Amino acid sequence: MTPTTPALDTFVSSVGTIVRHEHDPVMIVKQIEPLLGDVLRDASAIPPQFKRPDPNRYSQYLLHRARDEAFSVVSVVWSPNQSAPIHDHGTWGVVGVLENEETETRYRRLDDGSVAEYAKLEAVGTFVLREGQTSVILPPHEIHRVENRSDRVSISIHVYGADIGSLTRHVYDPDTRHVRSFVSGYNVPEEAPGP
Ligand code: FE
Predict the structure, then answer these.
(1) Whole-prediction pTM value?
(2) Residue 189 belongs to a domain
(3) Which of 90, 86, 83, 84 is closest to 163 using CA atoms?
(4) C or N terminus of the chain, fewer CB within 10 Å?
(5) For the CA atoms of 49, 138, 185, 181, what is the dihedral angle to 10 degrees?
(6) Could you read off the pLDDT of 83-116 as tens digits, one per residue?
(7) Residue 76 sits in which domain range?
(8) How far apart are the CA of 93 and the centre of ligand 1, in A?
(9) Could you tell me the distance, in angstroms and rounded to a whole number, from the CA of residue 103 to the centre of ligand 1?
């Protein structure tokens, strides 16, 4: 089940309007960023079961998926020192930090993509995204590694231009230059305790 809260409902409805009227990804993410900022400032926006860390690996919970899969909204929860390998998204995205901070390293692809399962990457920069801040993902400049280098749980809210959990995406090994396909899926939130 995906949650409904006033802040999330307002956000989802606004994003739905944007993606139906705007087709340029640059304009889409530009319009979504301030709206996501509003969600990040609302402490009641995301129910607790969608903010729960897993000690073994980072969690990705589905908050909303448009009926036509034109966009999806997820929460990503990182325990201390958890990270995501270098990956791509295959669609536009907007990321905002709800709690604590995330460290992101962006990569540039140096090869032309003509060799199957091969990519030569170069790191272009590492920056820290802090609570309340947003960042955008715009293919083809969208390959990154994300880490929680802190000693506290970090939570971010992401919006993507597809059902991100069912998209075939790629993980990159910068040393061997090997590229592997993956489908992330979603974590299932534990049921909230009854009244
Ligand atoms: Fe990512």
Answers:
(1) 0.95
(2) no
(3) 90
(4) C
(5) -150
(6) 999 999 999 999 999 999 999 999 999 999 999 9
(7) 6-182
(8) 9
(9) 11
